[in-house]
Amino acid sequence: MNANLLTLEGVHTHIGAYHILHGVDLAVARGQLTMLLGRNGAGKTTTLRTIMGLWQASKGHITFDNKDITASDTPQIAELNIAYVPENMGIFSDLTVKENMLLAARKASRASQMDEARLKWIFSLFPAVEKFWNHPAGKLSGGQKQMLAVARAIVEPRELLIVDEPSKGLAPAIINNMIDAFAQLKATGTTILLVEQNINFAKRLGDRVAVMDNGRVVHAGSMQALAEDEDLQKSLLGLAI
């Protein structure tokens, strides 16, 4: 079995006239949490959207579980048991929390058919999801919406979970709750690719790290090694953890 569940090799992405990714090489190790770091505008979100087929790679190869998905469209990629939580969370505001969850539960056509044990586990991770189960999702706070977005992505077991900046704009207490949730997900063996700006978040959770700059991965290695090297942090990110 390949040690890497997801690999990008020489991936370029153009959006209209703009050349955003310039040959991205990225490996996401199976069963680990890989952090994707970098300054604003480095190409992190574009990388995630290219993996998910929301933007098509203009050059290079994307491989998931030994299958080339470079030219696959988004529904085909989702069918491979990959879940994506975008930066804007993608919540359906007019639907209830329950209805948002049910939409993601492909094996259930009504709430009673959802995996009860898994729901109970999700409620333990994100109590607000249970508390506001029958409330319109649009009425939730920003932190509660982020909890719902992640809960919805894991309503069924996933091979790969891709999340874009889960701590953005959240209060410290909610960030700690989110860190605990991802730690539990890691313990189940779920492979996770996480874009994050909160360096403490990255330090506490990451197994591996890739740092992007100007549309390329300029550093890859262990998260611990980066966390312990202040000179490397400053040269790559302009700050120290």
From TrEMBL:
Question: Keywords assigned by UniProt?
Answer: Amino-acid transport, ATP-binding, Cell membrane, Membrane, Nucleotide-binding, Transport
Pfam families the record matches:
ABC_tran
Q: Where is the ABC transporter domain?
A: 6-239
Q: Name one GO molecular function term.
A: ATP binding
The record, for InterPro entries, names:
AAA+_ATPase, ABC_transporter-like_ATP-bd, ABC_transporter-like_CS, BCAA_Transport_ATP-bd_LivF, P-loop_NTPase
Q: Which domain of life is it from?
A: Bacteria
PROSITE patterns noted in UniProt: ABC_TRANSPORTER_1, ABC_TRANSPORTER_2
Q: Which family does it belong to?
A: Belongs to the ABC transporter superfamily.
Its recorded name reads ABC transporter ATP-binding protein
